[in-house]
Amino acid sequence: MEQTKHGEAMTEKIQQLFVFTGARGVGKSRLAATYLPPSRKGEVVYMDTERSANNMRGQLLQRGRGDFGLYIDLEDVADRFGFKSDNDMLDRIARGETPWMGEKERDGMLAYYQYILDTLKKITPDKNYSVLILDTT
């Protein structure tokens, strides 16, 4: 792993992984976002593919409680890779279909997740980030 002038990339510091799964609207994003106490929210890197955290962020800012240490909006990025919002991947899987419709969409998915990994490699500990939330569909 390449080191930057700030030290090791965040991907080299990962010690634990938690995965929260469940139906849409049950509070997965809120659970992840409140993993650390409010006094430590500056340690959180939040990568959001559906803008799930917008309401939480708005409430924090409105109450003068600041924001996450780093917030990365990935919804526009997903659009660039050609994901159709009206044909949800989880719905396809539930119907017994493959999550991609063809080679172009499969390649788009691979490029999208490679983009996420490349972005993580650029996040360095010049700020004391300790939690990464990858809020994805």
Present the secondary structure layout.
Elements: H1 28-33, E1 44-48, H2 54-62, E2 70-73, H3 75-80, H4 89-94, H5 103-122, E3 131-135
Parallel strand pairs: 1-2, 1-3
Using only C-alpha atoms, the radius of gyration works out to 16 Å
Q: Helix/strand/pairing class, anyone? A: alpha/beta
Mean pLDDT across every amino acid position: 78
Q: Per the principal axes of the C-alpha atoms, what is the gross shape? A: globular
Percent of residues in beta strands: 5-15%
- N- and C-termini, Cα separation: 28 Å
How do the strands of the widest beta sheet line up side by side? 2-1-3
The description of the largest β-sheet is:
3 strands, parallel
Give the ordered list of helices and strands: HEHEHHHE
List segments where confidence is low: pLDDT < 50 over at least 5 consecutive residues: 1-5
Quick tags:
3 strands; 34% helix; 5 helices; 137 residues
What can you see in these coordinates?
The protein is an alpha/beta fold and 137 residues long. The protein has five helices and three strands. A three-stranded parallel sheet has the order 2-1-3. Helix 2 links the parallel strand 1 and strand 2. The two termini are 28 Å apart. The N terminus is likely disordered.
